[in-house]
Design goal:
single chain; alpha+beta; 434 Repressor (Amino-terminal Domain); Beta-Lactamase; 2 domains; 15 helices; elongated
């Protein structure tokens, strides 16, 4: 086997991705070198996998060749760097194509609860089913703070005495499962620490320092049982991240979809939608019973 063939067979994925960007634009190595202000020889070495591109070179290369965010992040990840996604301001985030797509997903998930939240655990969008469940599961918190359902601090929502855990039957293990997840996220997002500390203090005060955790580290699903005025409701919660694997960062928006775990919960949620049930409506409560 020739040396050229060996280099082709063994060249890093990064080199292949970068070369494809240049070829797709239809420019030569020399033209790209002039645009980037470096030698053609270095461009050639990068495309052969003989030189490792720097972070700044990958970003510049992508910009000059018109590469997509997906291609850029694929090149970054394969070269050993973290994906580079700009963190949008909340107002911009809500108007982005990503949040519009996620809102459509929430609509498709009706009549069941679903939320979209960010890395700070602030709700950015919520389904109608989710808003209804908030009014049933933590009416004391919403009445006390007057917080719109689209701006709920999810950590506060479980820390507050009148928050969601006040209605959860398996509150101790649910709270500890959430605490474990938050402590792991805190390792790379220290800004969460103060709120997570308060949450842990509230759990200890309510349920003691030790106890069973409902899931293993890294799991993002959870079974939650709610004791409501409409009856006991059991849900399976599943968290997911939207986007291609190379685009996912800690700043990526996440979804949490609640699926009915039994027929009784399914009936309550579907009846709520059909009758336009609102919390506090005595007549519809009687119909469901």
């Amino acid at each position: 086997m020739s040396g050229a063939a060996e280099r082709t067979r063994g060249e890093p994925r990064t080199a292949s991705i970068l070369r494809q960007m240049r070829v797709a634009l239809g420019i030569s190595q020399l033209e790209l070198a002039l645009r980037l202000g470096m030698s053609q020889r270095h461009i050639g070495f990068v495309e052969l996998g003989r030189a490792r591109p720097s972070l700044s070179l990958i970003l510049s290369w992508t910009r000059e060749t018109g590469g997509t965010i997906d291609e850029r992040n694929a090149a970054l990840v394969s070269a050993g760097y973290s994906p580079a996604l700009l963190e949008s301001a909340p107002a911009e985030c809500r108007q982005s194509a990503e949040i519009r797509t996620l809102r459509e997903m929430l609509v498709a998930h009706e009549p069941y609860p679903g939320i979209i939240f960010d890395a700070d655990w602030t709700v950015r969008a919520m389904s109608e089913g989710g808003q209804w469940l908030c009014s049933v599961g933590m009416p004391g918190l919403l009445e006390h703070d007057g917080v719109p359902s689209s701006e709920i601090d999810m950590i506060t929502a479980v820390t507050h005495p009148a928050g969601l855990l006040s209605k959860v039957v398996n509150a101790a293990e649910t709270g500890r499962a959430l605490l474990r997840q938050l402590r792991l996220e805190q390792l790379t997002r220290p800004s969460l620490k103060a709120r997570v500390d308060r949450f842990e203090e509230s759990l200890t005060a309510r349920y003691g320092a030790a106890g069973k955790c409902a899931r293993a580290p890294g799991d993002t699903h959870l079974k939650v049982i709610l004791d409501t005025e409409y009856g006991q409701m059991t849900f399976l919660l599943v968290q997911t991240v939207f986007g291609l694997p190379q685009n996912v960062t800690q700043k990526s928006l996440r979804s949490e979809l609640w699926f009915p775990f039994d027929d009784a919960t399914r009936v309550i949620m579907t009846t709520r939608r059909r009758l336009g049930l609102a919390a506090g409506n005595q007549s519809t409560k009687q119909v469901m019973r």
